[in-house]
Amino acid sequence: MHRFLIVAAALSIAGSAQAQMGPPNPDANRDGKVTWDEYRSVQSGAMLDRLDSNKDGRITKAESKPMEDMAARFGGAKATARIAEMWSKGDANRDGALSRAELEAMSRRRFDAGDTNHDGWLSKGELATMRQNRGRDG
Questions:
Q1: 60 by DSSP, 3-state: which?
Q2: What's the rounded Cα separation, in Å, for the pair 76 and 53?
Q3: Distance from CA of residue 41 to its chain's centroid?
Q4: Which residues does 107 contact at the CB level (< 8 Å), separation at least 6?
Q5: What is the C-alpha to C-alpha distance for residues 47 and 72, in angstroms, rounded to an integer?
Q6: Separation between Cα atoms, residue 15 and residue 92, nearest integer Å
Q7: Cα–Cα dist 15/30, whole Å
Q8: Alpha-carbon distance values, 101 to 73, 81, 107 (Å)
Q9: What is the phi/psi pair of residue 35, to 5°?
Q10: Are 79 and 6 in contact (CB under 8 A)?
Q11: Three-state SS for 40?
């Protein structure tokens, strides 16, 4: 479930402006609570917007290659293995592409795992824990 964040980290590196500013803040309304809609927008929505070069609503392996290369460059074999696992688990219909629904399913699993008190939103503490755990197995 933590695998999706390595992709998000690579995405923040891939865009030069994003690399300078860091990943977008998922708390869009700045109320201290990250809802599922806010999280989904930043995670799966931003990923699709950045990588879906032909705007067909799917990310193919060819479209994700630059992000995968960046992750491998900065994360080595461990990052490469995590991305392979992301494709294995994320591409539910095995068509070689990640659809919006598949991206959202991965984001949802991550959100649910991060929402440790099951109140339906992520606190700053839960987000911090998710960030700390992003490089760990599990």
A1: strand
A2: 25
A3: 10
A4: 4, 39, 40, 43, 44
A5: 18
A6: 27
A7: 24
A8: 28, 23, 10
A9: -80, 170
A10: yes
A11: helix
Cα distances (Å, whole numbers) of residue 61 to 52, 76, 138: 10, 18, 24
Beta strands in the chain (DSSP E): 34-35, 58-60, 97-99, 121-122
Residue 135 scores a pLDDT above 80? no
Residue range 108-126: mean pLDDT, rounded: 95
Predicted local distance difference test score (pLDDT) of residue 25: 80
The DSSP symbol for 54 reads T
- What amino acid is encoded at 127 in this protein? L
Cα 44 from chain centroid?
6
The CA distance from 97 to 82, in Å, is 16
Six-digit token string for 99: 């659809």
Query: What's the CATH fold of domain 3-133?
Result: Recoverin; domain 1 (1.10.238)
DSSP secondary-structure letter at 99?
A: E
